[in-house]
Amino acid sequence: MAGVAVSTTINGDAVEYLCQPDETLLDVLRDRLGLTGAKEGCGTGDCGACSVIVDGRLVCSCLVLGAEAEGRKVETIEGMAHGDQLHPLQQKFLEHAALQCGICTPGFLIAAKDLLAKNPSPTEEEIRFGLAGNLCRCTGYDKIVRAVQDAAEVMKGA
Fold first, then answer.
1. CA proximity to 21, closest of 43, 4, 40, 46
2. What is the number of structural domains in the chain?
3. Which residues pair with 7 in a beta bridge?
4. What pTM, to 2 d.p., does this model score?
5. 51, 98: one domain
6. Backbone dihedral angles phi then psi of residue 74, each to the nearest 5 degrees
7. Residue where a domain terminates, one of 54, 76, 98
8. In 28-120, where does DSSP find H-type helix?
């Protein structure tokens, strides 16, 4: 099968790659580009572990073809921190112990980033609704919600 040439922007950087027509964006990110933050938890778009933002829209990268990234802007967990400076969401997840095994954490962080970009002052209910596409089998959700609430306050003040 012939490869598909793709030119895209990932975390602000121009990127070109070849992928198979049936290869998922998740597989391209992990296997071709070495961006292993997004995880495959289910492969069916039900768990959110592979969440990324494509053109400002939260998507499960296991459900998007790598070829569909052509000309688009992709944001992954690897683009959240700036050098050694963690994003406020990452810092608050650490402070609130809102992670355990780490499989779901990148997806939660990306979903929370997307939520706060659209709603900088969400209520607890709005946070829970905004993160409902992400599943965690370790932490429960209270610490995650508290971390997002705390990060929202910090980000409003910045």
1. 4
2. 2
3. 16
4. 0.95
5. no
6. -115, 135
7. 76
8. 88-95, 105-118
